[in-house]
Amino acid sequence: MPQLYIKICGLSTPESVAAAVAAGADAVGFVFAPGSPRTVDAELAASLGQAVPADVETVGVFRNQPLAEVMDIATSAAVSTVQLHGDEPLADIRALRDAGFKTLRAFSVDAFEALPEAERLLWDAERILIDAVEPGAGVTFDATNVLAEPPAGMWLLAGGLNPGNVAGLVKTLNPSGVDVSSGVESSRGVKDNGLIADFIRAARSAE
Ligand SMILES: O=C(O)c1ccccc1NCC(=O)[C@H](O)[C@H](O)COP(=O)(O)O
Fold first, then answer.
1. Catalytic site residues?
2. What is the residue extent of each domain of the chain?
3. What is the chain's mean pLDDT, rounded?
4. pLDDT in tens, 111-153
5. Which of 30, 85, 102, 137 would bridge 81 by S-S if both were Cys, CB 3.0 to 4.6 A apart?
6. pLDDT at site 144
7. Are 180 and 163 in contact (CB under 8 A)?
8. How far is the CA of 137 from the centre of ligand 1 (A)?
9. CATH superfamily label, 5-205
10. Could you give the 3-state DSSP secondary structure of residue 73?
């Protein structure tokens, strides 16, 4: 079975990027969606990304921004992967892949459950992330329905994960990976390097 994919999101300092890489993260996320306490600009992300080894993905997180703006920022920041966290269509994901980016499409659990069967089958071929309704808020959601009908392809679980609950949720829901932001912070938007290491250790203990 492939190793659990672990993404640490919302990084904005060289220290937290180094902590995530040293602890064995598979991906580090930079938020480009406006209005978040974690928002960084392309220049800062590009400089943070220089310390990231090639086998660790650098993920730019966007929400309902025009595709041209996403391409422009992702290119300037030199991220390997684009995560779309709004209502973006499959066509945007395909355009980004054609442009050379790896992709990750986030759905709130509500939006995922509301997808018509035919559309859900299309998304099964993509890497997707199932999140709480408000991204980056550290809130968990009722996973009963996800458990009843989990995505068939590669999918990450997010939403209120922390070092104390991640192992249990991985064992119960069996996602391909996990994504965390608030649960590894000492205060909103401020990463705690000890919690980052604790989270990755706890997640790996469930494999
Ligand atoms: O982190 C944000 O502030 C954010 C803002 C706008 C869109 C997406 C955002 N984060 C996306 C993530 O990938 C988070 O890691 C994910 O929502 C989990 O967050 P949390 O519940 O805080 O662990």
1. 9, 131
2. 5-205
3. 95
4. 998 999 999 999 989 999 999 999 999 999 888 887 788 899 9
5. 102
6. 81
7. no
8. 7
9. Aldolase class I (3.20.20.70)
10. helix
